[in-house]
Design goal:
Order of helices and strands: HHHEEEEEE
Distance between the termini: 154 Å
Radius of gyration: 51 Å
Structural class: alpha+beta
Oligomer: single chain
Low-confidence stretches: none
Number of strands: 6
Mean pLDDT: 81
Helix content: 55-70%
Length: 198
């Protein structure tokens, strides 16, 4: 072999070596690129998981705060309703003592009306007018007469002072009202004094 042929062979082998090196480098570059893609993919998934975990944690906090807010709002509504009821009750029953003092005056007026023989007399008309005004005033504050005559005897509303057997009337019925009773809304101020059949 001459020198030119040796040079060509050397050149060819070095070209083959370079091609082999290039192909190995390309494979390594491809492997590195795939590795980088995998690492990037894993990193992005980790980031997504961290973000999702953070979102879940924040949502839990929001739900807790929302629940506390709703409970607080319900407690406040209950408090306002209770205080309103208490104010109404206090206002209503604050007048109880005055109303209790006015009821005997109402009884006296009714006796005066019953005592008048002349219904056309000015005195009768005046007493009747004042009596009606007093009843209207008491009704504005929630005072009402307790119905009793021919009603079933109720110990919560009536005070039985007499008992009598009455023909044609079943037992435990009110047959006579001796003194009218009054109640303020649901509270009995004075029970009706009655005679009850037995």
């Amino acid at each position: 072999m001459n020198q030119d042929e040796i040079k060509q062979e050397n050149c060819a082998s070095s070209n083959e070596e370079e091609i082999t090196k290039d192909s190995q480098e390309n494979v390594e570059v491809e492997e590195d690129a795939t590795c980088d893609e995998n690492v990037t993919d894993i990193n992005s998934k980790l980031e997504e998981k961290k973000i999702n975990d953070k979102i879940e944690e924040l949502q839990k906090q929001i739900d807790e705060k929302d629940d506390k807010y709703k409970r607080l709002q319900a407690e406040y509504s209950n408090y306002m309703r209770r205080t309103q009821q208490e104010k109404e009750t206090i206002g209503l029953f604050a007048n109880e003592k005055i109303i209790g003092e006015l009821i005997p005056v109402l009884d006296s007026m009714e006796r005066a009306i019953d005592a008048c023989t002349d219904k056309e007399d000015n005195m009768y008309k005046g007493i009747e007018l004042v009596h009606k005004q007093l009843i209207d005033c008491l009704q504005k504050f929630g005072v009402e007469e307790i119905a009793a005559l021919n009603e079933e005897f109720d110990p919560n509303l009536h005070l039985a002072v007499m008992q009598e057997s009455v023909e044609g009337v079943e037992a435990n019925k009110v047959v006579m009202v001796l003194q009218k009773g009054y109640k303020l809304k649901t509270k009995v101020i004075r029970p009706t004094m009655v005679k009850v059949s037995c």
